[in-house]
Amino acid sequence: MASADKEGQGIPLFVFIPIIVCVAGILVLLDIRQRQRQLQHAPIDNQPQAVEQQFVQDLDDQDDDDQDASDDNHGEGSSTAVRVKKVGKKRGEKLRKKEEKRRYREYMDQQRDLRRAQEEAEEEAYRRVKMEQSIQKTDEMEKRRKEKEKQAKAKAKEELKMQALQEKDAKKRQSQFSKYSDKLKKLVKERKLCDTHALAKSMGLSQEEVIDMLKQLCDQDGEFELCLWSGTDTFLFITRDDYEHFNQQFSSKGKISIHDATL
Questions:
Q1: Are 214 and 184 in contact, with CB atoms under 8 Å apart?
Q2: Quick one: pLDDT band at residue 225, thresholds 50, 70, 90?
Q3: Are residues 89 and 30 in the same domain?
Q4: Where is the composition biased (Basic and acidic residues) (predicted)?
Q5: N or C: which end of the chain has fewer CB within 10 A?
Q6: Does residue 147 lie in a domain region?
């Protein structure tokens, strides 16, 4: 009867536990491998912290599952040799996962350091460009300021030079007028109708100098206030007495002939 009962019960359940654990471990390892491949192909630079946290969380969850499975194996009535073998395998797997996490964190740290270094380099390049532009702008402003100062000094120097020339010319004209005015007045009064070229030749002066002295006589001498010009070549010396003489001739005759209108 006892033999019949044992045959009716079949194979004990604990015999299948190692097989179930192995199958579960294989499935878990395949899932981890699939997740690692997805992480390798995913753009790390876009969301590095989120991916890292998800990967670490998955590894931690896997460690918990392996630990639970190991506890279940310890609870069964398996042999001591089997338990030692399972514990060694789990420990190696755990160390491997820790190493993977360490390498992954190290890789992510390197990526962050690279991005930070690149950002710092870009900021430094931007600051350098702005500084160079500021220096160039300052140099240009200083150059323009110096150029304006140079132009102002040159203009002031030219004005002083022109003023000195004008003063020198005025002194020369005044000296010539003082020296030749009496002689010129005498010639003009004698000739009445004068040609400036002939006057200049008679006095040994240029026509411009003679014209300038005649203008000064008209401005300064009362005897020359009624004189007439015909351009710059002809000068007529006429006085109030001459105008009164013309008036008397016109009043007595009613007309004046060109031949009678003598001075």
A1: yes
A2: confident
A3: yes
A4: 96-111
A5: N
A6: no
pLDDT band at 151 (very low <50, low <70, confident <90, very high): very high
The encoded tokens of residue 86 equal 């399972």
Q: How far apart are CA 21 and CA 29, in angstroms?
A: 12
CB neighbourhood size of 199 (10 A): 21
Residue 181 lies in a domain: yes
- Dihedral (C-alpha) 168, 170, 174, 179: value to the nearest 10 degrees? 50
Residue found by looking up tokens 């220096």 in the block: 135
Reported as a single tens digit per residue, the pLDDT across 167-203 is 988 888 888 888 888 888 899 988 888 999 999 898 8
The answer on pLDDT for 210 being more than 70 is yes
Beta carbons within 10 angstroms of residue 123's beta carbon: 10
Q: Which whole number is the average pLDDT over 122-128?
A: 92
Q: Which amino acid is located at 52 in the chain?
A: E
The count of C-alpha atoms lying within 13 angstroms of the C-alpha of 112, restricted to the half-sphere facing its C-beta, is 10
Place of tokens 């004068």: 194
The residues pairing with 236 across neighbouring beta strands, listed in sequence order, are 193, 228
Q: Please check whether residues 76 and 175 belong to one and the same domain.
A: no
Please name the residue that has the structure tokens 């471990």.
25
In a domain, 157, yes or no: no
Domain tally, the chain = 2
For the chain, list the strands marked E by DSSP.
Answer: 193-195, 228-230, 234-236
Name the H helices within 42-79.
48-75
How far apart, in whole angstroms, are the C-alpha atoms of residue 177 and residue 180? 5
Using the Cα atoms of residue 152, residue 157, residue 160 and residue 166 in order, give the sign of their dihedral: negative
- Tell me the sheet residues that pair with 230: 234
